[in-house]
Specification:
By secondary structure, the chain is of the alpha/beta class. It is about 35% helix and about 20% strand. It is built from five helices and five strands, in the order βαβααβαββα. Strands 3-2-1-4-5 form a five-stranded parallel β-sheet. α1 links the parallel β1 and β2. The longest helix has 12 residues. The termini are far apart. It binds [cytidine-5'-phosphate] glycerylphosphoric acid ester (C2G). The site of [cytidine-5'-phosphate] glycerylphosphoric acid ester has 16 residues, from β1, α1 and β4.
């Protein structure tokens, strides 16, 4: 069974996220999503999520293409996650290109094209308009 992992905040879940998750899942047989906790988002990514971790987790777990959701609590956990979950392929959107190449010693690293026209910040600013 080919195991794939990806990481993210996934707040205000939108079709750009879904596009990424479906393509990531299609690279294997089992998709793990390491979901950024509220604390990690606030302390390390300066992101204040609209939905709590538990609500974001529930939404991801409802997706057919997602098999397991685990917490992302820090920047350093990826290598250990790859080992622990016996991951074959690490996937991120191409806004992260090159940032996780150090994982190539352990698994395949794939950067997929982002869905260009949508983002959570775009949604928030459109709603303010
Ligand atoms: N994404 C995408 N297209 C968009 C928006 C996002 O393909 N229009 C992808 C991103 O490239 C990322 C994933 O969806 O792979 C989740 O995006 P975010 O929730 O914004 O995640 P991010 O804040 O980039 O956190 O350790 C890695 C970080 O946790 C990634």
């Amino acid at each position: 069974m080919k195991r794939v992992i990806t990481y993210g905040t996934y707040d205000l879940l939108h079709y750009g996220h879904i596009n990424l998750l479906q393509r990531a899942r299609a690279l294997g047989d089992y998709l793990i999503v390491a979901l950024s906790t509220d604390e990690f988002n606030w302390n390390s990514k300066q992101k204040k999520c609209y939905f709590s971790y538990e609500k974001r987790k529930k939404m991801l777990e409802a997706l057919r293409c997602v098999d397991l959701v685990i917490p992302e609590e820090n920047w350093e956990q990826k290598a250990e996650d790859v080992r622990l979950y016996k991951v074959d392929t690490f996937v991120m959107g191409d806004d992260w290109t090159g940032k996780f190449d150090f994982l190539k010693e352990q698994c395949e690293v794939v950067y997929l094209p982002r869905t260009p026209e949508i983002s959570t910040s775009q949604i928030k600013s459109d709603l303010k308009a």
